[in-house]
What we know:
The protein is α/β, with parallel strands linked by helices. The chain contains four helices and four strands, in the order βαβαβααβ.
Amino acid sequence: xxxxxxxxxxxxxxxxxxxxxxxxxxxxxxxxxxxxxxxxxxxxxxxxxxxxxxxxxxxxxxxxxxxxxxxxxxxxxxxxxxxxxxxxxxxxxxxxxxxx
Length: 100
């Protein structure tokens, strides 16, 4: 298995539920994770979790609506602070009606 420490993952729907669980596992494996989600309140909670657990630099949050194709066309790595290419891209958004 390839070593993942220091590599970068991009997790959509990553601020809650399965996506957040995946982000936690990836960070614990030593990866840098970009957590994208449409819910700013969930992003704030995820950022607080990683900050409180000493992983502020390992998990970066990004508000992203995956239903907006123009937003998806640019990964925004400059904003995320990670210049390495993504080796993992996970899509775990909830496709239902959500309070936005």
